[in-house]
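STRUCTURE REQUEST FORM
Protein name: AMP-binding protein
Source organism: Gordonia westfalica
Requested output: structure tokens
Priority: standard
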Amino acid sequence: MTTLDPATSATTSPTAEESDESVVAMWRTVATQRGDAVAVRTPAASISYRDALTRTDDRGRAIAAAVTEPGRPVAVDVESDIESVLSIFAVLTSGHPVILLDPFLPDDRKDHILGLSGAQRMSPADIEALPSSNEPLTVPEPDAPAVLIFTSGSTGRPKGVTLPHRWALGMALDGATFMRFGHDDKATALLPLSFGAGVDCLLMSLLNGSTLLLWDVRRRTAGGLIDWLRHEGATTVHCTPSLLRSWLADLGPDDEIESVRLVSTCGEPVHSADVERLRATISPAGVFCSWSGSSESANLAFNLFPPGRVVPQGPVPVGTPASKKHVRVVDEAGNDVPAGATGEVVVESRYISTGYFENLELTATKYTEMSDGRRRYRTGDLGRFDDEGQLHLLGRRDDAVKIRGYLVEPIEVEAALRALPWTVDAVVTADRDAAQLTAHVAVDPDKWTPSPAEIRTALAKTLASWMIPRDVVVLTALPRNERGKVDRAALPPAPARSPEPVRGPTESTLMHIWCDILGLETVGRNEDFVSLGGDSLAAAKMLAELRDRWLVDISTADFAGTPTIAGLAGLLDAAHRDRARSVTGATIIRLREGTGTPVFVMSGAGTPAASLVPLAREIQGDAPVYGLQAHGLEKRGRADRTIRAAARRALKDIASVQAEGPYRLAGYSLGGFVMLEAAAILQGRGENCESVIILDSRFEPQLVKRVGGRMTEATGTDGPATSPDRTGSDDAESAPKPRSIQILWTRLVMRVLVATAGWWQLPTTLQWNVFWDLGRHQIRRHRPTPYRGDVTLIRAPENPDHPDTWARLVTGRVNTVTVAADHHAMMRAPHVTVTAAAVSAALDLTDSEGSQS
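Status: completed
Returned output:
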């Protein structure tokens, strides 16, 4: 257990250890001692302690004269600036409790706070404009209300928590004991002052005589922050874990700030990966501090990690209880549980909140007055002490849910999700009535955008089956409220499920296969494979298992038309009666029913048309959507050797659906080249193409040179035939290097397989890799026919090709749209929604200004 001696603080300031007074008295004492030292500095201004004290006293008298109702709260519009700091201390000096109004709060939330509290609202400018007064100032009592903190209300309406003046003294002592704030410190608050943790940081630093550096991340962003911290010689930095993650994402070893001795986070659990990333960037030689608490308990615990201390994997324990806080872990009867056992966390102290503002009933359920003057607060959090006396928080008591008789804590599942290589952020919620979990996972598209089924399968390697969420929603980012916390009310709902029980032995067997592949406990006969999180690879794996078990061959094209257990069972039973039914060489499938002009989309190299289902479902309107794929990919048949041959075959498939134009053509990756060539052929026949859409197709250097295009250093380095990294990790360096003869043999075998692609069926993964390689060969040898028309190019940001190269293949306009996802992720949820929106815009009006980048 880490302990710190307050005597080692750089300087000595009055703290709650020696005094029992109001925050106003302590502020005056410190400000008088520090005199001309800088109290607060922003990128725009600074103020000394002496001037700050003079102005807060003057403004405090003016407020006392203007707000005559005793005890009436004053609500101040607070920004991260000097005027707001002065206003906070001025209200405290006036004897009125202060409410910190966040400018980013929705108006209805502000109105609710003002209505509930009956507060007088003032901005710093309003306070400055008040007439001066000689109103005598009285020093508030230690237990008088100082601050009303209104909870974020992420799961309901906000409620006010009353913090007494004595609370600030505990803050000062924590700042000296754990963070060692002293006169030489320059403490950087990246937490808005309107946050509970923001005002805590203000008090912990200023009441210990430090200089407070304010940088408003929400208005300034993090651009230029590193340079400013270096210029100011910042010694400590304080923020939320989510801000830390986003800030560090683009930083490297060259961004170290040598003056920083400590970085702390608060507000949410912090994970080992966050600490390791911090050590690799801003503060390799500094201390990391995990700092936890709540509006009701104030500071709860601190956990400091100097450079040599090992960081445990997963969520970091919250650590050592805060100053003058007796923290217990109790059972339902209120008895202490032994180390290692889980119970409710209870805080006993005089330095916590006094209750909920004008809500005696709620206060009575959570607070108990003790005979020695302390208060007991039942946090509602589950926790445990380890053998070293470190406190671990395990989530809300109300969040725990019994699943199959086992008590599951969502925070444990969140830790497992965060350990996955793709995960950026995650939150798990529990439905007690349904006894199930739902996971919302934000992923890094630069690594891989996994399907829900992949996520559940990965979790099964570390979690018991009853701990795996039934529903997984993949997002680009978790929604957060104005306080920076996950806004649970804004989390998109998981797809509604109303499963029908399976019928008969065939459906029962299929259900068990689906459950294994999708990582689910049960599946209804009417539930859609894609909606349950299955992707094209999962479908191929499932169909391969059917082939091995029943010796029948059902194509992904057939399955895409009826992707339910009931539908698949029908195909399977029919295949037993007539095997010929399952033997089809179809290279076009209907992805979506509809009316009007169809949309034809060609899949990429080595991927079946069924992989386009997510895109087809998201395209706006009700037009039918058809997917095309390479000949021989799923059924025996010699593959087309050139893009032009593939285009002619695609036109035959299209003609079977639509006899004459105008046509709507789109192609993904290799399919973009095929459909562009098909459009040129149609044009030569006198036909008209209404829309031609290319989805992140990529050139090979040979093609760029052949058409006289512009090369880039990265051209051809990440071609459309590249197999996606499904693990999210790069083991190239750690993997054993094959001998040269093995490399030559592998290349020879692949060359033979590509030359005979489609002649026989290979295992699914190998078959797809062969057609990926074939696609790259086709692009290298392609001799395109120029298309005299307009084209929409929808591309990923990391597409290595020069956009001007397309002008060598297209004589009309090339309208370019960039979507924020990589080559593979743009066709998968959640990013496919943005891709489909761009496709929809191009189908409606290809030169729409609103769709261009």
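Reviewer notes: Residues 386 and 750 are 55 Å apart (CA to CA). The mean pLDDT is 84.
Form closed.
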